[in-house]
Amino acid sequence: MTKPMPTMQQIQSLCKRRGIVSLGSDIYGGFGNTYSYGPYGSQIKKNIKDLWWKNFVENRSDIMGIDGDIFLHPKAWEASGHVAGFNDQLIDCKDCKARIRADHLVEDSLKMDCEGMSDEAVTKLIKDNNLQCPNCKSENLTEARKFNLMFKTELSKTAKAGDDNFVYLRPETAQAIFLEFKNVVDNTRAKVPFGLAQIGKAFRNEITPGNFIFRQLEFEQMEIEYFFSPPKNWTENKEKLMSLGHINDWDEESRNHINAQFDAWSKDIDNWCEIVGLDSKKCHAIEHAPEKLSHYSKRTFDIEFDFPFGQKELYGCAYRTDFDLSQHQKFSGKKLEYRDPQTNEVYTPHVLEPTFGLGRTFLAILTSAYEEEKLEDGTSRTVLHLKPAIAPVKVAILPLMKKDGLPEISKEILQDLQSFGACEYDEGGQIGKRYRRQDEIGTPVCITVDYDTKEDNTVTVRDRDTMKQERIKISDLKTYLFTKYFG
Ligand code: GAP
Q: Which atom of ligand 1 is nearest to the CA of 213?
């Protein structure tokens, strides 16, 4: 039976009461849609990052990791097109001073897409249809204008920067990877095709952050730039191919060359979704229409996910051509080419970029895992059906009583099992309540130490999902848990 979709209220209230995620700067009443990950939340987040790194970097011989800077040379953002083009259309409500994203207002009110429309056309659309501020319902709105999403900050006098001394906080991790390309090619044995992966913070001055951790000003991305050879005859045909909006309009050979990369990455992304336990029925691959492609892309598909507030972008996979390397080559004056060791051919590699938002992965995992289950005895429990690798606590060890040597035996078992990851010892309260607390944070297995343990060296092992209990010898515990949960 399929579980009902949880509401955002259910997810947020679980996150708050169990210290998974809470409002940033909570004691000051919160601040600008920031959220802080508590002990369980930060462990889940780390588990996701570790799994991603293992799956895409450590388990593959064609991808290496890097850790680039948040501050890049300001010229890099001119080269990448972010200074000129990383904009949303903003309108302000003159009455309540709310900042509103014009495309969201049009989409929500008129159910139409206004991407690519000029500021004038969007302003007219809003006026002609008497659209109102979603906050106070006033029609007293400013005209639409472009708003650059990059945060700017100032360097100290001694540091070198652009002419005006400003630097940007990176709005994507990708550009740090492009800037590292030359070092990697010059100083490692990397051979095209190869990928560079990075996990790190990105910052966007979003006009309307919201939906909990879905859209934030400060968030983490896990990105790969995968470098591969250009289609044959690219050099002669570049101008013509770049003038066509989408690879579907390219010749068959060039199109197949790019689509082979998409096919491989599409499988890898599906596999990743399964690894972290995303409900496959909630994941949808959606192609971008040619007119909706970013300035650097000739084909992009997103993985959209059925979040409690609707189907929205979770991940993206974009073909960025040789746009970024060519632009950085032009702006830096440094050659960013590759010489094929077999053919001696020299070219600027093309790039496929699979990009994964960490916060959105976290939210999609919680959405997939959350259940309020009605039990046979008429009570109910909240349970997170997390994959063991994602669960913040792997095993909980619970002495039946706080006396008679049971805590001591429990603590010995705890020490022995910590090689599986974080384990928790809990001796407070009724055993049933203690099981419920562990169910709520997704602990796959609980171990209860009782009076029989003292007689026969066995413990009760309780499975989170089935709630079934088994008696297992302490000496067999590690093998049993490894085989069933952590192998
Ligand atoms: N390098 C390409 C790039 O940055 P993007 O679609 O703008 O592409 C990539 O962002 C991913 O980052 C998204 O698919 C999403 O998961 C995540 N993301 C983007 N903006 C976000 C925000 N404001 N808050 C949280 N996650 C965000």
A: 25
Residue ranges around ligand 1 (CB below 6 Å): 172, 174, 204, 206, 215-216, 219, 221, 223, 313-316, 353, 355, 357, 359-360
Q: Is cis: bond before 6, omega within 30 of 0?
A: no
* 3-class secondary structure, 452: helix
C-alpha torsion sign, points 386, 391, 417, 424: negative
Domains and CATH numbers, the chain: 8-74+152-367 (3.30.930.10), 87-148 (3.30.40.230), 393-486 (3.40.50.800)
Nearest atom of ligand 1 to the alpha carbon of 215: 24
Integer Cα distance of 113 and 319 in angstroms: 23
Cα 77 to ligand 1 centre (Å): 17
The residue to mutate among 208, 295, 305, 313, having the most atoms of ligand 1 within 8 angstroms of its beta carbon, is 313
Q: What is the DSSP letter of 215?
A: B
CB-CB contact of 66 with 176 (8 Å): yes
The position carrying tokens 């607390």 is: 437
> 55, 35, 56, 49: which is closest to 390 by C-alpha?
49
pLDDT in tens, 61-104: 999 999 999 999 999 999 999 999 999 999 999 999 999 999 99
Residue 52: pLDDT above 60?
yes
Strands 370-374 and 380-384: antiparallel
User: Bridge partners of 381?
Assistant: 373
- The closest-lying atom of ligand 1 relative to the alpha carbon of residue 316 is 14
Average pLDDT over residues 449-457: 97
Q: Which of 104, 115, 223, 355 best tests ligand 1's pocket when mutated (most atoms within 8 Å of CB)? A: 355
Helix axis angle for 252-275 and 234-243, nearest 10°, is 70
Which protein residue has the closest C-alpha to ligand 1 atom 16? Answer: 357
Residue 162: which pLDDT band, with cuts at 50, 70 and 90? low
CB-count exposure of residue 147 (10 Å: 0-12, 13-18, 19+): middle
Q: Which residues pair with 346 in a beta bridge?
A: 339
* Mean pLDDT within 363-371: 98
Ligand 1 mean position, distance from CA 221 (Å): 7
221, 226, 292: residue to mutate for ligand 1 pocket, most atoms within 8 A of CB: 221
> Residue 385 pLDDT > 70, yes or no?
yes
From the CA of 33, how far away is ligand 1's center (Å)? Answer: 16
Query: Residue 129 — φ and ψ, nearest 5°?
Result: -100, 10
Is residue 165's pLDDT more than 80?
Answer: no
pLDDT in tens, 283-302: 999 999 998 899 899 999 99
Tell me which DSSP letter residue 141 carries: B
- Closest C-alpha to ligand 1, atom 17: 357
